[in-house]
Design goal:
This protein has 1324 residues and is of the alpha/beta class. The protein folds into 3 domains: 705 residues, ABC transporter type 1, transmembrane domain (ABC transporter transmembrane region fold); 267 residues, 3-Layer(aba) Sandwich (Rossmann fold); 70 residues, Rossmann fold (3-Layer(aba) Sandwich), CATH 3.40.50.300. 61% of the residues lie in helices and 9% in strands. It contains 44 helices and 21 strands. The strands form 5 sheets. A 6-stranded mixed β-sheet has the order 5-6-7-3-8-9, sandwiched between helices. Strands 15-18-19-12-20-21 form a 6-stranded mixed β-sheet. Strand 8 and strand 9 form a beta hairpin. Helix 6 packs antiparallel against helix 9, helix 29 runs antiparallel to helix 31 and helix 31 runs antiparallel to helix 32. The longest helix is centred in the last third of the chain and has 51 residues. The protein is elongated and about 140 Å long. It is a multi-pass membrane protein. This is Putative multidrug resistance-associated protein. Its main location: membrane.
């Protein structure tokens, strides 16, 4: 959400005049700024009005809607996203087509004709006038200049259009994600959507450049074929034939690339999805010591991905080889045929042939073939986008339409009439069965029931998230919703609460008070303007729950749906929330409260008891009091009186008595105890500074070490040296091929001249015998024509062989680099401390594993190959030109110095802009991920437009950075082309001014110089692209070198007994704990306590007291000072893996990973199936598992196909299976119903009777039968003794906490503690 920061930096392109635009002069100020300072986000210009994400999204959405409309009218026809894109951007692509046509079909085809006329002037015995030669030379330079201008503006235009298409598609994807149904959302991993936004849409950037080559290249080929046939006859057709033999091969490899691209995308999706799960559940992975099985899963996914990527890379290597050899082989074929048929070679013909073959190779072998590959890959991406766009959508017809219709009534808040619904249409069993419910305006409805009974599904049906099979729902007015698993996004606390609504200070303060957030906001460093981390990482579970509730309450609505908001808070806060917020503040509103806190049932106007998706019974409290309906699940634990299981009479527990027994107990004990909290006048925090945790940006130029790091990651430097030598050798042989062709042509021209002169001399009467002898001697010293041809053949064969070997070796090496870099980064991430994940958003980390690894896998090797090949080709061209005339060194050196200076200025700006582009992409991913996590909440609030607008702002920022990048790149390229133009002018006119040079040498020098235009720009661009793509390596290396947790493995000299811990004694000696560096305050301070073997210890305290930090200290998840001993062994001296695998935990937020149930319980495959089934029977999950699949039952991402209670039971099964001596429960029963709570408590008492159990709890009833209770306050131990002993201290903290539950409740808790105390005394 928007944190209030706005930018306004007008784009200079908007008001630039035509000359400034033509010459890219408007970019000069940006280069100046980029050279003087490191560019930051504030330096980014506003996007152009036509580039705004909202504008582009609207345009494309309109066309897509049109496609859907046509599809609905003509059944069977599928909507085409490709057609929608084509219609949206038809004008832009037409303009590009005009530019491309003029450049490729007119200018580039006239240049060889003028070159032929010019070279005719230098032919021995030529009759061409010098004035004409100057005109031909001037024509070549002028045409080159026009071509240069058109090409530069075509490229920048193509990239710009590609960016606009990408932005439009991203906007469309995001809008679709806001409409995904819950079923579609469950089947679509967030990682896949991130991949669509990072890799798939990026295809549009390149395809725009090659799109028009699909029709201009064949036209160009037909025209070139005609010219060659006219000039060279059938010999010309031989060369054409060679090109057309290579092109289909390249087209086929292009198709293969698209096939592999689809496979790569699927496998990348899987790896990214897996990484998303790992990052989300990293704390659980660390506490269970599951790093190795997850590393293995990632390794398998990565290997599968790279197996396909390397095939694509080899194809690309073959393609790059053809780029060097196609023109040369075609020309070789034509010249060999000409010579074989007895034709003479001359420079004015040979170099025209070469120029035409260069045009043909560029248009067909490069542009056309690359276009086929790019279009094929883009079509794959469009297909994937289309599949996503066709996913099932959320239908709000269940609620939204009737909501307006029934509002006139004004009496009924919510009406559910015989509704039946199921999540998955293919499943026979209904989730909700024939539900009838009437919630009158202003009433409080309590919904209770066991795990999986359909409580949350009922709310989802009211929200319209669960599609109805039958029945209808009427809702009067607006809805507000607080979800069971609190959704908090990365923004300020205030933004999380007001959620885009207008800020009303008075209402806001009151909401903060009734939601018990005043104290928390005072403790936060910047009050409600404090930024919370991604997914609320910097907040406790209770704080997240109350912020989520505050958001629901702040939203002015008529119906409030509250899905168990009281579970994550302690008893006192829970009572405050219920009385002050739900009952009092919302008293005139319709409230439907799903809860497991049965003590509040008496205050409900209506109670609904669900069982297996149907209403077992419903009515007012008094009506149900006389009911004889059984509700056995609730009787196993009496939540209302906070009695433990042992306090319920054995007979009652066995017989599962009728529900009225339970309700009478509630009736007797539930006495309202209103909180006496008075509103605190809070000073409004200033909004001037919002402290953000922005992504760090490595400033300045990339360190040389990044290149060394990349090359070393693949192999040793000897291999790098070998590949470098192969590159040099390939270019050397290529240049020798050109030189030999020119030398041979010159020799053949001289041979013809000598023969003609000797022939003329023989016929003349006054022949000069000395001159004749000289001609004859020179003729005898020449090699035969066929000898020249054989040498030429050998050079071409050598070129082909070396080029292929070079390409394959290089790509194999790059894949090893990529594989090793990914593995190193993953190993660093999985082994780093939890602090890293608290301070880095998941979007930021995912950006490394999706976009950056994608760049290292595919874009970087392509850029290095391109840059190396083209830079070497440029060097070869210059060397060949200098071999003709050494004086060309002077302009080359001068321009070389200018190039170096301009490149230095460009790179400094470009790298900064590229960094900003990478940094501004992360918020797009983070925003999307957060949206998918909180989709139900977003839709319940109708906040889709606000979130859409926020996404557009993020994307506009990225578009601005990208537009700056492409324009600065093209301005740099244009500058280089201007210098190349000057060099061509110098070379061309120098031959005319000096004279006396043979045509072969002139042709060689001019053709090599003309090749520099475009090539020089592309080479410099690609060398800069290498530097920019190295940013991805730099970002990967940055995460590769994050510090790992200290002492992961136990030192060899320190032996940990296999049976350790054998008793379970825990000693804390002067223990301090802090999160982060030394500047951070301690959250645990001077802890000194001993926990005896097999002791059951309850840990209580208010929010922020340090309860969960105690668990973090025991697992060493943060920086611990002091000593923690387990059975006499200092945990700081043994490996973290050894420590953590000997402690079991049932966490507050149960985490399941996608895969099978077996992998979630036993990822190491250490236990036989019968043991897994035994623990599932112990936790009563066996009946919930599919009979056909058994242990291979599918677990969806995040375990979303299991209820929260079922997930908690899976965590309990894990703990039983590990059978450790120490068990920790971190508010493990907070989100479960009383029946599941009872089951967990009973299982713990039986299965962990001989273990040390530490229970962090909000609900005091769960720890009143503990051996001792540890009371914490602001990170310190304030009390530690048996609960009965602590209750004797009338001024004590624990006594105060018990009294806050209410008089009758306090008596029950005291009685429980006393009975347990005396029972222990008798035993001892």
């Amino acid at each position: 959400m928007d944190t209030g920061k706005t930018r306004d930096n007008p784009n200079p392109r908007e008001n630039a005049n035509h000359i400034s635009v033509l010459l890219f002069w408007w970019t000069v100020d940006l280069f100046k700024k980029g050279y003087r300072k490191n560019l930051v986000e504030e330096d980014l210009y506003n996007p152009l009005k036509t580039d705004a994400s909202e504008y582009l999204g609207n345009k494309l959405e309109k066309q897509w809607e049109q496609q859907l409309k046509v599809t609905r009218q003509s059944k069977g026809k599928k909507p085409s996203l490709l057609k929608a894109i084509a219609l949206t951007f038809a004008w832009e692509y037409t303009i590009l087509g005009v530019f491309h046509t003029i450049n490729d079909l007119v200018i580039r085809l006239i240049q060889p004709i003028l070159l032929g006329y010019l070279l005719g002037f230098f032919k021995p015995g030529s009759k061409t006038r010098e004035e004409d030669a100057y005109l031909f030379g001037g024509g070549i330079v002028v045409l080159t200049m026009i071509s240069m201008l058109m090409f530069n503006h075509f490229v920048v235009g193509a990239f710009h259009v590609g960016m606009r298409v990408r932005a439009a598609c991203c906007s469309l994807i995001y809008r679709k994600s806001l409409r995904l149904s819950r079923t579609a959302l469950g089947e679509t991993a967030a990682g896949k959507v991130v991949n669509l936004l990072s890799n798939d849409v990026s295809r549009f950037d390149m395809v725009s450049i090659f799109l028009h080559a699909m029709w201009t290249a064949p036209l160009s080929a037909i025209i070139v074929t005609y010219f060659l046939y006219v000039n060279a006859g059938y010999s010309g057709l031989i060369g054409i034939g060679i090109v057309f033999l290579i092109v289909p091969l390249q087209v086929y490899t292009g198709k293969l690339t698209s096939i592999y691209r689809r496979r790569t995308a699927i496998r990348t999706d899987e790896r990214v999805r897996l990484m998303d799960e790992i990052i989300s559940g990293i704390q659980v992975i660390k506490m269970y010591v599951w790093e190795k099985p997850f590393a293995k899963m990632v390794s398998v996914a990565r290997k599968a991905e790279l197996d396909v990527v390397i095939k694509t890379s080899y194809i690309r290597g073959l393609f790059m080889s053809f780029q060097i050899i196609t023109t040369r082989i075609a020309l070789f074929g034509t010249l060999a045929t000409l010579v074989t048929f007895g034709n003479k070679l001359s420079s004015d013909k040979v170099f025209v042939y070469q120029s035409y073959f260069t045009v043909l190779a560029f248009s067909m072998s490069m542009q056309f073939v690359r276009g086929v590959a790019e279009i094929a890959e883009t079509l794959v991406s469009i297909k994937r986008l289309e599949e996503f766009m066709m996913l099932e959508e959320f239908q709000d017809s269940n609620s939204q339409q009737q909501r307006v219709l029934s509002r006139v009534d004004g009496i009924d808040g919510v009406i559910l009439s015989r509704i039946t619904a199921k999540w998955n249409a293919s499943v026979k069993e209904n989730t909700l069965k024939c539900i009838d419910l009437l919630a009158k305006r202003g009433t409080l409805i309590a919904v209770i029931g066991q795990v999986g009974s359909g409580k949350s599904s009922l709310l989802q049906a009211i929200l319209g998230e669960l599609t109805l099979s039958s029945g209808y729902i009427n809702i009067s007015g607006k809805i507000s919703y607080a979800c069971q698993e609190p959704w908090v996004f990365a923004s300020t606390v205030r933004q999380n609460i007001i959620f885009g609504r207008p800020f009303d200070r008075r209402r806001y303060n009151e909401v903060v008070r009734v939601c018990a957030l005043e104290r928390d906001l005072k403790q936060l460093p910047y009050g409600d303007m404090t930024l919370v981390g991604d997914r609320g990482s910097s907040l406790s579970g209770g704080q997240k729950a109350r912020i989520s509730l505050a958001r629901a309450v702040y939203n002015e609505a008529d119906v409030y749906l509250l899905d168990d908001p009281l579970s994550a808070v302690d008893t006192h806060v829970g009572k405050h929330l219920f009385n002050d917020c739900i009952v009092s503040y919302l008293k005139n509103k319709t409230r439907i409260l799903v809860t497991h806190q049965l003590q509040y049932l008496r205050d409900a106007d209506h109670i609904v008891i669900l069982n297996d998706g149907a209403i077992e019974t419903q009515g007012s409290f008094q009506e149900l009091l006389g009911s004889q309906a059984n509700y056995a699940q609730l009787l196993s634990l009496d939540e209302s009186t906070d009695l433990s299981v042992e306090d319920i009479p054995e007979a009652e527990r066995e017989t599962n008595g009728p529900i009225n027994n339970l309700l009478r107990q509630i009736s007797r004990s539930s006495v309202k105890s209103r909180s006496s909290d008075k509103p605190v006048k809070e000073k409004e925090p200033e909004q001037t500074v919002v402290h953000t945790n922005l992504e760090a940006s490595s400033k300045g130029t990339s360190k040389e070490s990044v290149y060394i790091e990349y090359f070393r990651s693949g192999a040793n430097l000897c291999v790098v040296f070998f590949i470098g030598v192969m590159f040099l050798l390939a270019q050397t042989v290529g240049s020798i091929t050109d030189w030999w062709m020119a030398y041979w042509t010159t020799q053949e021209e001289l041979r013809e001249f000598y023969e003609r002169q000797i022939s003329l001399g023989t016929q003349a009467l006054d022949s000069n015998s000395t001159m004749e002898n000289e001609y004859y001697t020179n003729l005898q010293e020449m090699l035969s024509t066929y000898t020249y041809l054989y040498i030429y053949t050998g050079i071409v064969v050598m070129l082909f062989t070396i080029t292929i070997i070079r390409s394959f070796a290089f790509y194999k090496f790059c894949m090893r680099c990529s594989s090793n870099l990914h593995n190193s980064m993953f190993n660093s991430i999985i082994h780093t401390s939890m602090r890293f994940f608290d301070t880095n958003s998941s979007g930021r980390i995912m950006n490394r594993f999706s976009k950056d690894i994608g760049s290292v896998d595919e874009l970087l090797p392509k850029a290095i190959m391109d840059a190396s090949q083209i830079v070497l080709m440029m060097a070869g061209s210059l060397v060949v030109a200098v071999s003709v005339n050494l004086y060309f060194l002077i302009p080359i050196v001068v321009m070389g110095l200018l190039f170096w200076f301009i490149r230095k200025i460009y790179l400094k700006t470009s790298k900064n802009v590229k960094r900003l582009e990478g940094i501004t992409k992360s918020p797009v991913f983070t925003h999307l991920t957060a949206t998918l996590q909180g989709l139900t909440t977003i839709r319940a609030y109708g906040a889709q437009n606000i979130l859409c607008s926020e996404f557009d702002k993020h994307q506009d920022l990225h578009s601005s950075a990208w537009y700056m990048f492409i324009t600065t790149s093209q301005a740099f390229g244009f500058c280089l082309d201007v210098f190349c133009l000057i060099f061509i002018g110098i070379v061309t006119f120098s031959f005319l001014l000096i004279g006396g040079t043979l045509g072969g040498n002139v042709g060689l020098a001019i053709t090599q110089s003309m090749a520099l235009v475009g090539m020089m720009q592309w080479g410099m661009r690609q060398s800069a692209e290498v530097a920019n793509q190295m940013m991805s390596v730099e970002r990967v290396v940055e995460y590769k070198s994050v510090p790992e947790e200290p002492l992961l493995e136990t030192p060899q000299d320190k032996n940990v007994p296999r049976s350790w811990p054998y008793q379970g004694r825990i000693d804390f000696e002067k223990v301090y704990l802090r999160y982060g560096n030394n500047s951070e305050p301690f959250v645990l301070k001077n802890l000194n306590l001993s926990i005896q073997p097999r002791e059951k210890v309850g840990i209580v305290g208010r929010t922020g007291a340090g309860k969960s930090s105690l668990i973090a200290a025991l697992f060493r998840l943060a920086d611990v000072e002091g000593t923690i001993r387990i059975d006499g062994i200092d945990t700081g001296t043994i490996g973290l893996h050894d420590l953590r695998k000997h402690i079991s935990i049932i966490p507050q937020d149960p985490v399941l990973f996608s895969g099978t149930l077996r992998r979630n319980i036993d990822p190491f495959d250490m236990y036989p199936d019968y043991m897994l089934w035994r623990v599932l029977i112990d936790v009563e999950l066996k009946d919930s598992i599919s009979d056909t699949l058994g242990l291979d039952t599918h677990v969806a991402e995040g375990g979303c196909n299991f209820s929260v209670g079922q997930r908690q039971l899976v965590c309990l099964a894990r703990a039983i299976l590990r059978s450790n001596r120490i068990l920790m429960l971190d508010e493990a029963t907070a989100n479960v119903d009383p029946q599941t709570d009872s089951l967990i408590q009973k299982t713990i008492r039986t299965k962990f009777a001989d273990c040390t159990v530490l229970t962090v709890a909000h609900r005091l009833n769960t720890i009143m039968d503990s051996d001792r209770v540890l009371v914490m306050e602001v990170g310190t131990v304030v009390e530690f003794d048996h609960p009965h002993v602590l209750l004797q201290k009338k001024e004590g903290h624990f006594y105060s906490m018990v009294q806050e539950t209410g008089h009758v409740m306090a008596e029950q808790l005291s009685r429980t503690a006393e009975e347990c105390y005396h029972s222990q005394q008798r035993i001892s």
